[in-house]
Amino acid sequence: MQRMIGFIAFWIAVGMVLMFFMTNRLIALIIIALLLLIGYNFYYCD
Question: Are 15 and 35 in contact (CB under 8 A)?
């Protein structure tokens, strides 16, 4: 469980860094939706 929490925290930090440099809100929303979809597929669709 600790490894999974660490993994999640790492990718949250990566996302925060990306959004820090992102200026276009539409592209940011598209990236967020895409990553949520990928995360859902990796976690629930084994």
Answer: yes
**End-to-end alpha-carbon separation of the chain, Å?**
18
Kindly state the tokens that stand for 23. Answer: 């200026």
DSSP 7-46: HHHHHHHHHHHHHHH---HHHHHHHHHHHHHHHHHHHH--
Q: What's the domain range around 39? A: 2-44
Per-residue pLDDT band for 46 (boundaries 50, 70, 90) equals low
Per residue in 21-41, pLDDT (tens digit) is: 878 888 888 888 887 888 778
User: Would you say 11 and 32 are in contact if contact means Cβ atoms under 8 Å apart?
Assistant: no
Domain count across the chain = 1
